[in-house]
Hints:
This is histidine kinase. The chain is an alpha+beta fold.
Amino acid sequence: MRGVSVGVVVAAVCTGVGALPLLQGFADPRMPTGALYGAGWPAFGIAAAVLFDRGQQPRIGRALAGLALVPTAMVAIALPRAGGSVWSRVEDLWAVADVVVVLTTLVTLAATMGFARGRVPRRRLFWLLVWSAVVLGTFLVADEALVPRGAAVVLTLGMWSLAGVVARLTVAAELRPVDEPLRDALAVALTVATGATVGVAIRLAGIRAGIPSPDLAAVVAAVLATALAWPTAARWRRFWLAHRYGTGTLTPADVASITADLRPLQDPRVLLDKAAEMVAACAGRPGVRLVLGGDSPDVPPFWVERPLLVAGERVGTLLVGSENPEGPEPRQARTIAQLLPTLALVCRAVGLAVEAEQARQGLARERDAERARILRDLHDGLGPVLAGMSMRVQAELRRSPSPVLASLAPQLAEARADLRRIVSGLTPSALHDADLVSALQRLVATFDGNGHQVVLHVTAPEPLPPEVTVAVYRCVAEGVTNALRHGGASRVTVQVMANAAGHVTVNVRDDGIGGPIAPGVGLTSLRQRAEQMGGSLAVEPCDAGGALLHVELPTKEPA
């Protein structure tokens, strides 16, 4: 605080000393032109006091305080000279050295501000040079075209504006890209040009038509045209800023349009892409990615990493692309920072969904292992026993036929067929050496005959995951078996349809007795398995008779 206070005092002293020639000039009935030349430099002392008070850039503050002494220095140089009054000598000195003084002031400011690495320092120096060129060019034109008193007024206004620009550039924590103010100026210029063009056209038309007061009509028309053209220019400016920086907020309509194509059975990680689209629409950054997990991913060049935390735990990372190595613009960075908590919750929810899906897959694998164990027990235990009993019955039937053996032989054959179907349903061996379509064709062929007809239609554009393939095979086997055995059907239609959107649908329709339907162990087990995989299974009577087994399963699994 002591350093800041001393700086403010020094700036105030320099401002007062530099303003002495101006104050002395006010004592003259007619402000001397020599005193008027120095009326602009006290503004640098005021700017220095502002910087010292805020504790920012003391080097620039000292330079501004020194520039405030320029009028007094010019008077001190002119005093020892002979001839004429003091103010005339000061005016002659300014007339000779004014361009040199202005150039020295501009070079001092540019050198003091300096060139530093970073987006803001570069923009600060750029705007200082631009405004310095404007001030210098305006003064050179005024110095040639106007009398000394007019040039002194232009110089005063230029120095006050330059001091204000320097203070604003130094205090500003962030500066817009250099093309934005140029676009603003272009919008204003086009608006004014539109009004001026309309005014000139109205004036020429009024003169040609001989209407009274054409100048007044032209002025009114120019003002109205300018007022009407400005909303269009402002709309263009807002559209351009929205294209660069995004909307800044997400409306319910934005969320609805982005999430309109989400489906409950899709991969939950699709939500990450949708959330990235939301960030891109909100912040105006086309390159946005959400990465799941607690590890820091590889960040491409010119991309910025933002960790996503929930209760101190890193659940994901937001990657934002940028044309600038320093990252997005501050306006965009603030918008992204506001969205980080929401994105963290999205990553957490998606992570939990993926973990749940992986747990379901693990449970399905455990169930498959248990079914494989049961398969071995049936194949190695009950299967040989039934085969041996069947052979002994057949041998005894050939040796001494009897009604009991004659009825027992087909029952054993049917039991062996049922056992084969059960074993095939547990772990379909038909899938080991064939694709799903071939395996289903073989399965359906075992049901044909004896007055039964089974029709198969399969549409599978891409190979299905192993768990889904087994589930489809089991559903078809169970559905056809139930239709023929319990439904008394003579015709069964099987439809298996898979699409690239991530779903497979199984429909088993029969012409049997229909309801009531009491799901047994097989259907209950299949329904539980479908739900564990994230799908569904339903059996219901059809209006035209018979029953329908409808199964939907997801085909795309989280990695």
